[in-house]
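#random but structural
TW: two for the price of one
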Amino acid sequence: MYVSYMREKTMKILGIETSCDETAAAIVEDGRGALSNVIASQVDLHKPYGGIVPEIASREHLLKIIPVIKEAVNNAGIGLKDIDGIAVTYGPGLAGSLLVGVNVAKSLAMSLELPLYGVNHLKGHIYAAWVMGDPPEAKAAFPFVCLVASGGHTELLLMRNYRDFTLLGQTRDDAAGEALDKAARILGLGYPGGPAIQKAADGVCSKEQMPRAWLRGSLDFSFSGVKTAVLNKARNLGLLEGKNRTEAQEKTARELAAAFQESIVDVLVNKTIAAVKKTGAHGVIMGGGVTANLLLRERMIIAADGLPIIVPSPSLSVDNGAMIAAAAYFENIPVGPDGLNLDIVPSLSIA
C-alpha cells in the first residue's frame, strides 16, 4: 500500500527544467500522469566543443524556453488557466541556465497568481520513477537505494519515504557522465559521451583492462583514475594523432571504449548493491542520463538477483520537466510554496 496526497481535485503542475543543456517543460497530474513532456536538446550546438559551453547553453535557453512551455501546455490539451502550480529547478546546475528557468517560472507564477515550487534537480531524477505508471512503492516497500548518475553528479542515497533522504556516497572527483564524455573525446568517438561509448562498445569483446577505484570501506565513487588510464593508453597507442586512423586503430579505440564502459558499470553496480546490503533496502531506483546505458541496466538487474530495479524510460532519464513536476508534488507541495524571492543555488546538495 502506498501513500497518496488526497486533494479535492487533481493537481496539474507545470514543471520547468533548465539546469544544464536541455530546455524542458511538462504538465504532470498528481505527480504521476505526464500529460506532456517536451524537451529541446542542445546536443548539436555543443557537439563541436566535445562538452557543454555554459554561455551557449544559457543563450539557447532564452530562445527556447517560451516556445517549449507553450508546446507543453498545448500538448497537454489544457490552457494556462488550468495549471495549479509552477515547479522549476533552482539547483544544482549551471548558474546562467538555472537563471533562465527560475526567472521565467517566477514571472509565470506572479502573472497567473499560482504557487511557485523550487525543486532540487537531483531529487527530480529520483521522482522520474513516479511518472511511469505504477509508482515504485507499488512494486516494493520503502526504503529504496537511489542511484543518481548523470553528467555532473553521481550519488547513492537511501530514500526512506517521500522527503526523507540520506546521502550514502558520492563522487570524489569526476561524475560518471563527465568521465564518459571525456573518454569519448579522448577516443574520438563524439558527443555526448555516454551514447557514443555504448555504440562503440556494442558487440566488442575487449581484452583491455581498466582500473576500478573501489575506495574500500566507502560507498563513494572516483572516476578520474580510469579517465587518466584511457588517456594514457590512447596516447601510447597513437590514437591522439588525429582523425586519419587505420582500421586497426579504430578497432583498438572500440576495445578501449568497451573496457572503459565495463569499468564504469562495474563500479556503479557493485557500489549500489553494497548499499542495498548495508541498508536492507527493498529496491533500487536509478535516475539520470547515465542510467539509460543498456549495459548498466542489464548488469544491475542481474546483480540485484530478483530485487526490484526501477529505471525510468530513456526520455525520463535525461533532464526533463516531468520529473521536476513530480518532485514538486511529493516534495514541495506538502510543506507549501516558495516565495517570489526564490533564487538559484548552483551547488545545491541533495541531502
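TW: number two ↓
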Amino acid sequence: MTRFVAAFLATFLALDALAASPPPAEPGYATVRPMIADQQRLVAPNAIEVSEAVELGGLKQWITIRGADRANPVLIYVHGGPGATEMGRSWPYQRGWEDFFTVVQWDQRGTGKTLRHAGEAANKLELTRQQMAADLVELIALVRQRLRVERVILLGHSWGNVIGLDAAMRKPEWVGAYVGVGPLMNLQANERAQYEALLRQARLRGDATAQAELAAIAPYPGEGEIPFEKVNVARKWVMAYGGLAASRKDANFYFQAARLSPYYEFEDRLAIDQGGQLSVPALLPDMRRVDHTRIAEAPFPVLMFLGRHDLTTPSSVIEPWLARLKAPVKKLVWFEHSAHLAPHEEPGRFLVALVQHVRPLVARPGTR
C-alpha cells in the first residue's frame, strides 16, 4: 500500500469504523430500528419497495428500488468514496424523496452488501473505473426496462461523479438529467484548490497553528505522489474547518447513520470499512487520472448541487467548468449551510431543490 493510500484511508475511510461498531446493549436500540423500518414502509397502491442482488458486469451487486408511485421519475444515486456506500445511510433524508422520485441505491462493487455477499475475491477481480462505469450502464439498462422509463436522473456524489459522468457520456440518450453533488472532477486540481482554501481560512481565522502546519507542507500537492504527512495535514484542517460537514469538527452523524438503518445489518456495516480499504488502493490510479473538466459539451441537462463550505471538493474547480460547459440546461444550486454532505446537512432544502430544478426535466406526462 502506498503512503498516499494509507493517508487517504486514515483520514477519511477509517472513520467508517464508527458505523461498524457493535450496537449498544440497551433494549431501546433494538426497538428503534424496527420503528424506523415501519415508518419507511411504502404502502401506496402503486408503490415499489425492492431490495435485492442483481448481476452487473458478471457480479451480483446489491440495489434497492423505492418509491411511493411508479409513475414518478427515476433517480439513481451513485455513491462516493470509493467504497462509501450510501444505501445504509440514506434513511434520514430519502423517505421524502420517494414521494417525488423512484430512488435507486446501489452498493458498487467493492463495498457494502455487494462486498459482504459476493466476497472479497470476486469483488476485487474487476475493481476498476472502467468496469464500474460499465456496471452503472448495465444498471441503467435494467432500471429502464423494469420501470419502463426512457430516461433516468443520475446523481453522482463525490467519487460517484467519476463513474456517473463516465456512464452518462456513454449513454447520453438514457439520461434525463445529471446532478453532481460535491463532485470530484480532477484530483490534482482538487487538492490544489483545497490547499489554497485552507490557507485562506487559516489567515482569516488568525489560526497560527494551522498556518504553520500548512506552510510546512508547501508545495501542496506538488508533482507526482503526495506524501503521507502532507495529505494528513490537509485532511486534518479540512475536517477541523467544517469542510466535510459545515460548522462541525467531525461527521459522526453521517458515519453512524447506518447503525439505525432498516436496510443494513451489522455485517453490512463491517463491509463499509472493509470496502474502503479494498477500493481506495485499487482505484487510486484511476482517481489520479480523472479529469472531467475536459468535458466541453453534454447533450443532457447538468446541475451542480454544491455546499458553500465544501473544502473536500472545492467549488473553485467546478464553477469554471460549468460556466464553459455547453448543455441544453445547466444550473448551479448552492446549499449555504452545507459542506460536502448536503443531502444530510440540509435535507429539506435538498429535496426542494430536486423537486424544483430536476423533476420537471424528466417528469412523465400526467404526473404532478
